[in-house]
Amino acid sequence: MADLKTTPSAPSSGSKPKASRRRWPVRLASWAWVLFGFVVILFLVYPFLVSTNFMFLFGKSPSLSDLENPKVEQASEIYTSDGVLIGKYFRENRSPVPLSKMSPVLIKALIATEDVRFYEHSGIDLQAVIGGVFSSVRGEKRGGSTITQQLAKNLYKIRRQQSRGALGYIPVVSTIVAKTKEWLTAVDLEKRYTKEEILRMYLNTVEYGSSAFGIKVAAKTFFNTSPDSLRPEQAAVLVGVLNNPTAYNPKFHPAAALRRRNVVLDRMAQAKVLPAAEIKALKATPIVLDYHVEKHIDGPDTYFRSAISQYVDAWCDSTGHDMYRDGLKIYLTIDSRMQAHAEQALHERMKALQRSFDNFWRNKGKNPWVDEHGDEIPDFILTQMKRTESYKSLANHYKNQPQRLDSALNAKRAMKVFTWKHDDNDTTLVMSPLDSLAYYKHFLQSGMMTMDPFTGQIKAWVGGLDYRFFKYDHVKQGKRQAGSTFKPFVYLTALDNGYTPCDRIRDQRVTINYVENGKPMEWKPDNVTREYTGINMTLRHAMARSVNSVTAQLTEKVGWENVAKYAHKVGITSPLLPVPSIGLGSAGDVSVYEMVDAYSTFMNSGFRSDPRLVTRIEDRNGNVIQQFDPVQHRAIPAETAWLMTYMLRGGMEEPGGTSQALWDYPDLWHNDNQIGGKTGTTSNYSDGWYMGMTKDLMTGVWVGGEDRSIHFTGSQQGEGGRTALPIFGKFMEKVYKDKDLGYTYGHFPQPANKISKKYSCISESEPRRRAEAVDTIAADNLLEQMNSGGKVPDSLRGR
To answer: Which stretches make up the Penicillin-binding protein transpeptidase domain (predicted)?
Structure first.
């Protein structure tokens, strides 16, 4: 056998050389080190990339300034001049309180439930994070966020749209980026704030449901208490809702809220916040709420709220502030005590007047909506209904279906309505929309405003009977003919153009010829009694007794165009027709707000002060941002202004003055007190007015129906001296009795300079008080002309 030689076999095509196999572990290790290095670098660099929003990939993170001065949305608060909080404006209702004003058990319950190692970590609880990861793998839902992380998310809205970068729109990646921001922000917060400060910020910023943000609002919303008075079971409810403010809201999901509360109580037991026996007893108790949700505009319903909103909104637009977010403190000129006195006086009088009004029309056997002949207007309610938004909505819904529309208008249901019969002014009645409208049309309405004439500060504003049921504001929004309260502007025009209070004009029938729209016209104004004394009256006496014939003659002498000009000078802003009847208050509609403004010019030495509702605005820390000082400008000479106050005192001091019903209010007349004023009544007694002044205050009152066709039909019930004047009398009695307000009896100020015109011409031969004259309303021969088919000037229609 031949010897065989052994030779190395060739490597197969599928195997690697031994040298290559030996080098592979080395390469793998190298790649591992590279990967490890990359991870380390990424770990070190990634936070920097996120915090700097590298290439706009990660979105904005809180800046150093944001961290040191966090801007939390906070409700703006409205305070009266005497420091009473009467309302708030907010999107997120939040009123921060210090930690010392919070119940200790609340803080312990929060830590036990949300972050048991709160005092041990520096913003991130790694143990909780790892536990959360393993829980997620097992399909369990368990959060790993610390209180500080939750604060970061809530305080800086890290997950909102504005904070997203390009990566924020990629699922999973967006969550990782957001979590990273929360961790980074939490660590920064821990560096800059103490644990106590973090707890305070957290409890003051987190949402508790029912539009309650912050523990103070939450405690009030759910339990009508304060944070420092929360009982353990109440604190457990509020801590429990933090996990899901909607799902665990005790008002709307009581069973879920109860289960969640008991979970919190168990956590409190584990943390030994309370003894186990006490926890067991608390878990057996039901959740007892005292629930009250604050609206975005919270506080008592008041008629001046819209005026404040408009004013402050305009100010915010010009200064870059936000009334619903910035936690402003808005201080009003309104005095809460005077406001209460005004509301009470108006309600007392209107309740009695409504009873008289109802009896008056019940005895006549008809509804109070009547034409100039006193006949009830047919289909009045249906006509009025067709003007409402609710009717228009129903008509559109039941288009071409008149029977269904009629059924909807007559469908009865229970509804809460206004009434004078109960102290809370409401009751529930079953009625249809048409019934409801007819019910409300029976009510007389009123508006009242009081102002300090020297500063323009509005001290009281009552726009109606009850804002819950009557939203229409009869102080500024409503405008009606002023009747005889407009006459002083005629006498103002005269005094500023050479006349004196002692000049005389005879009370006699007069005919005034004028041209309207190119046509010759004739006007024969009447006194309401159709009687003329023939007395050559002083201007003061004529204005005090509100004599139409004298006012009409004086208007012709000074020029009706000039009367309109002077009325606008002193404060009337509504359009006025320059026609002969302007002096009788029938040339345009005006508001209580305008009339008070205009009359105040007389008292303020001829300076017109812009009416003010706001005195100052502070930031959330109490720093004054802006002070609103009086804005005044001279409208008329000081001598003319003083003479006008003297003329207006004539209503009380001249024999037969129309203000003399004020003698029936004895508490007005201590220490030889002086009061001036003017009554006013319009045709058919549709409007009753009283403008009353003391040495300190100017007040305007209007009374009338919602529509001009709703009114009394005689002077004994419907003239301004009997409808509006008593409200002023009652109000001023209450003001004088309230010694804390500081308003005292006394004389009007003496003129600062010598009065050059003769003014002292009171008739001493007649007693100071006698039966007051009926307020001579803006009545003339129009009704006679209308009844006889005569031509009535266009400018004098509709009075």
So the answer is: 449-703
pLDDT of residue 28 exceeding 80, the answer is no
Distance from chain centroid for Cα 397: 33
CA 558 distance to own-chain centroid: 43
Q: Cα separation of 539 and 554, whole Å?
A: 9
CB contact at 8 A, 205 and 94: yes
SS (H, E, C) 666-706: HHHCHHHCCCEEEEEECHHHCEEEEEEECCCCEEEEEEEEC
Confidence of residue 102 (pLDDT cuts 50, 70, 90): very high
- CA trace torsion 421, 427, 429, 432 (10° rounding): 100
Model pLDDT, residue 158: 46
Phi, psi torsion values for 678, nearest 5 degrees: -145, 130
Residue showing tokens 């039909």: 713
Minimal CA–CA distance to 343: which of 309, 289, 312, 300?
300
> Could you report the per-residue pLDDT of 460-476, keeping only the tens digit for each?
999 999 988 888 999 99
Classify residue 327 by burial, with Cβ atoms within 10 Å: 0-12, 13-18, 19+: buried
Closest CA to 682 of 773, 589, 596: 589
What is the CA angle 659-662-664, rounded to 5?
Answer: 140
Q: How would residue 423 be classed by pLDDT, with cut points 50, 70 and 90?
A: confident
CA atoms of 399 and 394, how far apart (whole Å): 8
φ/ψ (deg, to 5) at 418: -75, 145
Amino acid making up residue 484: S
Give the pTM.
0.73
Question: DSSP string covering 290-321, please?
Answer: ---PPPSEESS--TTHHHHHHHHHHHHHHHT-
Question: How many other CB atoms sit within 10 Å of the CB of residue 717?
Answer: 17
Going from the C-alpha of 120 to that of each of 123, 133, 200, 659, 761, the distances in angstroms are: 9, 20, 18, 78, 90
Does the pLDDT value for residue 785 go beyond 60?
no
Distance CA 778, CA 549 (A): 10
Give CA–CA dist 476/461, Å, rounded: 10
d(CA 380, CA 382): 6
- Which pLDDT tens digit goes with each residue over 49-72? 555 444 445 455 555 555 555 566
Round to whole Å and give the CA distance between 487 and 644: 11
Q: Give me the long-range contacts of 377-383 (CB less than 8 A, separation at least 24).
A: 377/709, 380/441, 380/709, 381/434, 381/437, 381/438, 381/441, 382/434
| Residue 336 CA: distances (Å) to CA of 83, 300, 446, 596, 700 | 9, 11, 20, 20, 18
Q: What gap in Å lies between CA 719 and CA 704, rounded to an integer?
A: 10
What average pLDDT does the chain have? 84
* Over residues 426-438, mean pLDDT: 92
